[in-house]
Amino acid sequence: MNGAQSLVATLVDQGVDICFANPGTSEMHFLAALENPKMRSVLCLFEGVATGAADGWYRMKDTPASTLLHLGPGLANGLANIHNARRASSGMVNIIGEHSAAHLKYDPPLMSDIEGLARPLSHWVRRAESSSTIAWDAATAVAKASGHPGQIATLILPGDTSWQQAGTSAIPPRAAATRKAPDAARIEHVARVLRSGERTLIILGNKATRGVALERAGKVAAATGARLGSQFFSARIERGAGRVPIERIPYAVPLAQAFLKDFRHIVTVETSEPVAFFAYPDRPSLLKAEGTLVHPLVEADEDSALAFEMLLDMLGASATRPTLQPRVETPVPSGALNPLSIAHALAAALPENAIVVDESLTTGRETMGHTMGAAPHDLINNMGGSIGYATPVATGVALACPDRRVFCMVGDGSAMYTIQSLWTQAREGLNITTVIFANNSYAILKAEYANMGAGAPGERALSMIDIDRPRIDWLAMAQSMGVPAVAVETAEDFYRALADSAREPGPRLIEVRLY
Amino acid sequence: MNGAQSLVATLVDQGVDICFANPGTSEMHFLAALENPKMRSVLCLFEGVATGAADGWYRMKDTPASTLLHLGPGLANGLANIHNARRASSGMVNIIGEHSAAHLKYDPPLMSDIEGLARPLSHWVRRAESSSTIAWDAATAVAKASGHPGQIATLILPGDTSWQQAGTSAIPPRAAATRKAPDAARIEHVARVLRSGERTLIILGNKATRGVALERAGKVAAATGARLGSQFFSARIERGAGRVPIERIPYAVPLAQAFLKDFRHIVTVETSEPVAFFAYPDRPSLLKAEGTLVHPLVEADEDSALAFEMLLDMLGASATRPTLQPRVETPVPSGALNPLSIAHALAAALPENAIVVDESLTTGRETMGHTMGAAPHDLINNMGGSIGYATPVATGVALACPDRRVFCMVGDGSAMYTIQSLWTQAREGLNITTVIFANNSYAILKAEYANMGAGAPGERALSMIDIDRPRIDWLAMAQSMGVPAVAVETAEDFYRALADSAREPGPRLIEVRLY
Q1: What is the pLDDT of residue B449?
Q2: What positions does the domain Thiamine pyrophosphate enzyme TPP-binding occupy (chains A, B) (predicted)?
Q3: Does domain A3-163 have CATH number 3.40.50.1400?
Q4: Is A414 helix (H, G, I), strand (E, B) or coil?
Q5: Which of A106, A253, A286, A459 to substitute to test the interface with B, most B CBs within 10 Å?
Q6: Model ipTM value
Q7: Contact across the interface for B25 and A448, Cβ inside 8 Å
């Protein structure tokens, strides 16, 4: 067994059994090691697809995937979606191929400071020094990535570490992945706040927006009158009919301020108090009203399910029944496509247990509330704000959940960053419906131009915002990578295309023509 | 005038009059400042296109372009082609938008360590602290980027620096861009080596492969019997009929060793002694034979034209006539497409003064010698080895040289990394013929798999190398972004498509079907 084989064997032994790969010459022994039948390899034609897919995998599985990237530039191409994954608290194990140690002193063309490139966005970085210790390194990387919250672990794999013989390899004892218990005094304090009857918003983040934590949060809300909210962007929310509903703090600063202004208290759960996404010349960074008090209930590394259990005990409310979202049957819309009819079409078409990956920006983000009463589903957002996240994340999500339909809602400008995802979706036959909102513009920037106090964009500025020359032919784009596609120009056609796509296996693309 | 306007005004005053932009919310004031009619803005749909285009611009102009990128992740997406530009000694001024200073302490979603991401691949990094000093910062960045060799200068632009008033701004005095004179003793030493009559290879790098430096190198060769060589990859070579010919050191280690083995001396000019591109288990890193002596003639920051003038003086050979490449009329090939017939078609079709950007890897790189006797042209290579460089670089090259036809020779796998370039090429009506070598495979990796001693790839490894499921439909891909395209399956059709493309303005794509 050589170092590469030892690495792959350790990854699968530790539960990391998928690798999103974009290999190069220095990773040939790793490719050979991928013959290990326990490891699934998924080829991506661009590294940002690989890292985004690993993020999507984690969001659904709560366990890390691995990526295989080619030296410093390969890592660099994956960094934007590593940033997004990091902000989503997704765990990920990146294997970065590197020249053999003896070759580095000659400064060959592909050499760069891989550690330097990895550190700003990784929680843990290590250069594997020997084929006999790579198993230890790999197990450590998996342990780091698997913690709560998930972490970005980056392991640099020199060629000689890969190709030399490994011998017998020790690995560190596997620590149970635990979440810290929250501080009882802090919970007691929040219980007092909630008993005060003063208006309180409980903001749920990371893993508190789903499962038993969300159910218990719903009981707290029902027992105390507190409201449940989320940041505008969340890693994954279980929502729709029968779920505990969560209110979404708006994106735009004035709307967020209006939403928050009446709360005397904000209680945070695995998140922090709301902050504006961008800085604007005449607007605040913090969104709460003056005088609103912020109370952390659960820190990022703590267990929110346990915290809510303790809180319910203190409140004597364990038996309270949470208010659940009723099913709202949305009639199939017709006529013009606009944000509202688009949201209605989605609400009507969403099949049971679907997963929505949302990067629809101007088109979808203000109207997502209309899908609250749809069939139960998961909603995934971009936590890091680096656009080009949706199509890769949907790719990983679909691989993690092959029995569920994935709807990837993405603006045309955003989709172009990582459009190579479509090829992997076709190759793997993934059940993804990619919805392209084609307004031929970075439309969000038109609003932001005014928000920034830059006035109305002039001709040259506008030419940097509109992407209508040439207009992207989305049907041809989908065809080029083997994804069947259709364009729609009415709400009823959009609904039909969504519903049709959910009935057939494999990827589909719908171009929603907004021009 | 606000900070952004001061920045743009300074850039154009200092001679940087093009900006390859992919803007976001934090760069709205910069967009507004782009209304400055002296600055040309070129929109790119992915940041790697912007940085690669800036590289291409520099290769033809020898002066830097600017890029506009959106925070840390936007920079990250541009890093792979910054790596390639750095290895090509191309100067570049990157402007990276950033949150305003007051917003950073809240750790907003898009925040990252921009300096940390920039430093590994930039020669100079600065965070602009104030709108009144940004002009100074910008002028410093341009001066750094404009040195010899060119450098990567990265200027981080916080929102408040952008939107606050600039007042009167000082800028540093403009230093004349000079190249250092080489050391006379070193030149004398090389003159002695050349007079010895022992077999000598003079390896030309960076700016020594063109213009007066190349002419003078040709005189030295003619006078002394030394041979002229280049590394396998060069930033730009002026070649073809009437130019001083340069022999190319082969890529594959055994071939490079065979080429170099008979030389007693290697003289280096703006480059170093030849090194293997990758490390292999049983092959050396250094390619020269044992006993070969290496003599640096011109260091990277020195003036090779001056060095050769001094050398010719010492040799008393200033009046020698260099041997020039004769015109070789290549007959139009016919029949099957293979590396040889492809090279012949290119040689026959190249119009006078064309520019070839080569990333053809397995298909083109071993046969480029067959175009040595074609009409005079420039040849540009990937110096950093991060693939996905050719289509962006061709974009910048075509903008720099609107009157010349650009041929971008690229493998299908490579083209997919930064395929968004096609859109900018269509938008700007650039005279680029993109030639896609469609072998549906990362074919180079099949050879490298064996070179690495990993044996024959098994089924799973092969599935990470072949990209034929699905086969990319290149005609649809080109159509999706507004580029007219044709597919060819014979050498005569390939020749005709090349020749036709050169007669019409605007971009074209030719899919060369190798399957």
Answers
A1: 87
A2: 376-512
A3: no
A4: helix
A5: A106
A6: 0.97
A7: yes
